[in-house]
Amino acid sequence: MEFIALFWNWNFLKRSSFIQLKLEGFILPGKERPLEERRRHGHSDNSQGAEIVKLVLASVGNRARRDAFDTLADLYLGRTQGYCDVEVQVARTEASLLEWVERLRGRTAPVLALLDGRGKPLSSEDWAAWIGQQRDGGQQYVVVAIGPSDGWSEAARKRADWMVSLGPMTLPHELARVVASEQIYRAFTILAGHPYHSGH
User: Fold this and answer.
1) Confidence of residue 96 (pLDDT cuts 50, 70, 90)
2) What is the pTM of this model?
3) Of 115 and 19, the one with more pLDDT
């Protein structure tokens, strides 16, 4: 199985003393409190005290270099790191991605949500509610995956726990990464009651 190593580009944020290579406790100045800081102070993002989920944004494709879309996705995923552990994975093939997901099995099986045009269209509030259910239910890993250019195979769809549509319009995969990253961040702000989401 081959994976493309992604290197997070935070050059535009070098002045921030909060930045760490593994993104642990990342926070933009003046924004959410870092995850590790909240843990030290005994805070939880849910009333049930469930363990904070690790969310993986995965995609399939042969990406030789980073682009401006990655910078935007980094911005939202970095903000999300204030609420949960975030990881990015890029696989060269659908098969290698599915194999990697299977190896994530820990105390709970990973939850796999495929972004697919034939999936269920959701509002941001519904998307947040689903993520909240996974978090509060004690899921260890939630994988949100963007498929190959020719779409997900039938085998991948059968493996998925959920299929979600970003809308009826066709988006380039680079832009889909940005939209997915922003909606993941928005979901956690909705769950936390953060003013970022105000119905727009």
Assistant:
1) very high
2) 0.74
3) 115
**Domain ranges, ordered by start, for the chain:** 22-191
pLDDT, tens digit (0-9, with 9 covering 90-100), for 133-165: 999 998 999 999 999 988 999 999 999 999 999
The pairs formed by 72-78 with CB atoms below 8 angstroms and a separation of 24 or more are: 72/178, 72/181, 73/177, 73/178, 73/180, 73/181, 74/8, 74/9, 74/10, 75/181, 76/178, 76/181, 76/182, 76/184, 76/185, 77/23, 77/181, 77/184, 77/185, 78/10, 78/13, 78/23, 78/26, 78/28
Q: What are the respective helix, strand and coil percentages of the chain, to the nearest 5?
A: 35, 20, 45
Q: Which CATH class is domain 22-191?
A: alpha beta
